[in-house]
């Protein structure tokens, strides 16, 4: 018998009762047990020290109900789209029929019903994020999502978007889990969009598990937004890389409320390469947390993290980056960099880089900085005739671009630069 | 063109300029020479409008208008240009983006139409060719990874694009080898015009072999100590600044 202390945790127990027989019962039960054992994390849990989820989630909103509405969905780029709306995959809003050869998509619900071994194994995502209450809760309560499989050797040039929208007018909680499997040597470009269509304070917990087979490569761009000040948005990426696989990811976090993006990655084959880059644009009272754990399990791995956090008004940024190098993972090359730019006296940044190195022949470095707009740079621009506000905007944009420019894909880079530009225009407009 | 009268400037409560008076006519090239720490760079920053320099007395007029109350960008619009002793690196901001923002901000402020991209690129390419600035440099972020000489060439390129009325060159010769010095000087000489004045700040006479001044001013202890013709620079080269500094001991 599980005993949960708070009223909030009681609400989750009732969600679990509702979801426990909706496919993958063992997986759900194990995940629920893991969650119930810990409860919601508070500041005493080290990896949640700067984000008190227990305090924030004291009143869980009801579990999302499937919506049959077909709202107009914003579309910013030319990609094939797979839509999950209010916790339910919507084939009618998706480009299923247009997916190219070599790609198969189905709803998580259907996949759980089928119970294919490959999917069930991948969904459990080995032991990634196993200690994390949010990942456990996601597995216990997953309502739906997308299972996307790329055949071995499939080279898909066109970007595919996994879009998760919330549209309800009242607060609700939705839990989705998507699974992306790339066969050996496959290549894909994914855009992960998480956004809200309403001003209701959603409480979302979304996760994506990606498995890259030997020599597979994935470019992944995440745009994580939502404008409701009271919203609580949790987004996890669980990435598993085999030998010679390459994952190149970039995440843009903006909006309002509490947003936490977590990354758990394991480089589980020789010569695996992973880049986790991102930019956060904070205004209002946004609390934006990026927490990542990159686990080098095999030799000759390479990981790169380049994060830029821009904080205006009362926004708060958190960056926690942990790089683990296991005893056998010799010749690991890791480099992590988090820089924050504070635009207001009231903004706060918390930087916490961590290295846990158990191999003796590795190269690992990290750097974390936090500062204001550089006065020398500002004066230089103004001394060339650029008015102060415009000069500030150029410098802020340049700061964000240092991370955006890690992307090789011209179209995606332009798309992200545009988002940064739009944020700056709103800032200038007040 | 430029009239500075009895200028007193403090930085962090310490007086650096102590009643400096200087007049530069339209079309004139005025050299300011002096030892380290006499306020030459302070003078250039005050004219350009940098924060943190408190003008406690005196005035700076450009074509009869007091510019001390203006924002740095407004001064640029009026025709002031400062070529920095140490041009600032701005990683993340592309050089072309920067040049376009600067040029079009000036054009807007001067009531001229903004340049469209093709015309803008044409102008930059012309200026770059004249100064031997390779295309590769234009593709990098502002001054990032540039050598000292490359940074100075880029300063002159910006000057050529912005077409100022008063250009202040703050130790443009520092960090330059002979070849770079020649290229940069030719760039400056090409911009000499009857309606454009230059204030050339330098330690050494060498730069003045390439950019021939009309007047030479010796600056020490926060003021202009002596004014003369080009021959004064040669005299300084021979005798040093000792006599101007030594007075302090008296």
TrEMBL record, chain A:
Membership in a protein family: Belongs to the iron-sulfur cluster assembly SufBD family.
Pfam families registered for this protein in UniProt: SUFBD_core, SufBD_N
Underlying gene: sufD
Segments forming domain SUF system FeS cluster assembly SufBD N-terminal: 26-161
Descriptive protein name: Fe-S cluster assembly protein SufD
SUPFAM superfamilies referenced in this protein's UniProt entry, alphabetically: Stabilizer of iron transporter SufD
SUF system FeS cluster assembly SufBD core domain: residues covered: 169-399
TrEMBL record, chain B:
Nucleotide-binding among keywords: yes
Organism whose genome encodes this protein: Methylocystis borbori
UniProt-listed SUPFAM superfamilies: P-loop containing nucleoside triphosphate hydrolases (SSF52540)
All residue ranges annotated as the ABC transporter domain in the record: 2-246
UniProt keyword terms in alphabetical order: ATP-binding, Nucleotide-binding
Pfam families given in the database record: ABC_tran
Family to which the UniProt record says this protein belongs: Belongs to the ABC transporter superfamily. Ycf16 family.
UniProt name for this protein: Fe-S cluster assembly ATPase SufC
Family matches, as CDD domains: ABC_FeS_Assembly
């Amino acid at each position: 018998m599980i005993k949960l202390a708070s009223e909030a945790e009681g609400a989750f127990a009732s969600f679990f009762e509702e979801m426990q027989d909706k496919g993958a019962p063992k997986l759900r039960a194990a995940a629920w047990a893991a969650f119930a054992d810990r409860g919601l994390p508070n500041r005493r849990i080290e990896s949640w020290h700067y984000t008190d989820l227990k305090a924030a989630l004291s009143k869980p909103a009801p579990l999302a109900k499937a919506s049959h509405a077909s709202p107009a969905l914003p579309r910013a780029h030319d990609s094939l789209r797979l839509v999950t709306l209010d916790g339910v995959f919507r084939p009618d809003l998706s480009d299923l029929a247009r997916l190219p050869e070599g790609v198969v998509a189905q709803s998580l619900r259907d996949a759980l019903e089928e119970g294919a071994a490959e999917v069930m194994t991948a969904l459990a995502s080995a032991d990634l994020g196993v200690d994390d209450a949010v990942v456990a809760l996601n597995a216990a309560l997953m309502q739906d999502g997308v299972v996307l499989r790329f055949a071995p050797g499939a080279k898909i040039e066109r970007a595919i978007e996994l879009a998760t929208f919330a549209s309800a007018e009242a607060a609700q909680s939705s839990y989705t889990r998507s699974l992306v499997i790339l066969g050996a040597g496959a290549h894909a470009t994914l855009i992960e969009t998480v956004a809200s269509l309403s001003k209701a304070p959603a409480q979302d917990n979304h996760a994506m598990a990606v498995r890259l087979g030997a020599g597979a490569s994935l470019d992944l761009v995440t745009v994580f937004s939502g404008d409701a000040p009271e919203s609580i948005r949790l987004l996890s990426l669980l990435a598993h890389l085999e030998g010679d696989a390459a994952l190149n990811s970039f995440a843009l976090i903006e909006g309002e409320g509490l947003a936490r993006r977590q990354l758990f990655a394991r480089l589980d084959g020789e010569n695996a390469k992973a880049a986790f880059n991102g930019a956060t644009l904070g205004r209002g009272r946004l609390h934006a947390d990026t927490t990542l754990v990159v686990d080098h399990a095999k030799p000759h791995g390479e990981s790169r993290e380049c994060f830029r956090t821009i904080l205006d008004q009362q926004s708060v940024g958190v960056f926690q980056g942990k790089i683990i190098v296991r005893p056998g993972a010799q010749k690991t090359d890791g480099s992590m960099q988090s820089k924050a730019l504070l635009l207001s006296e009231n903004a706060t940044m918390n930087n916490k880089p961590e290295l846990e190195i158990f191999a003796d022949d590795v190269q690992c470095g990290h750097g974390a900085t936090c500062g204001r707009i550089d006065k020398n740079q500002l004066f230089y621009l103004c001394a060339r005739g650029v008015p102060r506000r415009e000069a500030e905007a150029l410098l802020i944009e340049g700061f964000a671009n240092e991370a955006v420019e890690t992307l090789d894909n011209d179209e995606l880079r332009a798309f992200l630069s545009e988002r940064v530009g739009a944020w700056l225009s709103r800032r200038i407009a007040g | 063109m430029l009239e500075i009268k009895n200028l007193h400037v403090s930085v962090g409560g310490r007086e650096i300029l102590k009643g400096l008076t200087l007049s530069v006519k339209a079309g004139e090239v005025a050299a300011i020479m002096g030892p380290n720490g006499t306020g030459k760079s302070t003078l250039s920053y005050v004219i350009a409008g940098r924060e943190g320099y408190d003008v406690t007395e005196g005035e700076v007029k450009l074509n009869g208008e007091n510019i001390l109350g203006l924002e740095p960008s407004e001064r640029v619009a009026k025709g002031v240009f400062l070529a920095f002793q140490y041009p600032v690196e701005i990683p993340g901001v592309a050089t072309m983006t920067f040049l376009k923002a600067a040029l079009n901000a000036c054009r807007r402020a001067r009531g001229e139409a903004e340049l469209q991209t093709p015309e803008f690129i044409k102008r930059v390419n012309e200026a770059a060719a004249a100064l031997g600035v390779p295309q590769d440099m234009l593709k990098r972020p502002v001054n990032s990874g540039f050598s000292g000489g490359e940074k100075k060439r880029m300063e002159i390129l910006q000057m050529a694009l912005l077409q100022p009325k008063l250009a202040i060159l703050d130790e443009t010769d520092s960090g330059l080898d002979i070849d770079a010095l020649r290229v940069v000087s030719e760039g400056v000489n090409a911009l000499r015009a009857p309606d454009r004045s230059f204030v050339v700040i330098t330690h050494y006479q060498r730069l003045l072999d390439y950019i021939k001044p009309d007047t030479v001013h010796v600056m020490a202890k926060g003021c202009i100590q002596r004014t003369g013709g080009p021959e004064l620079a040669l005299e300084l080269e021979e005798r040093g600044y000792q006599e101007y500094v030594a007075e302090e001991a008296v």
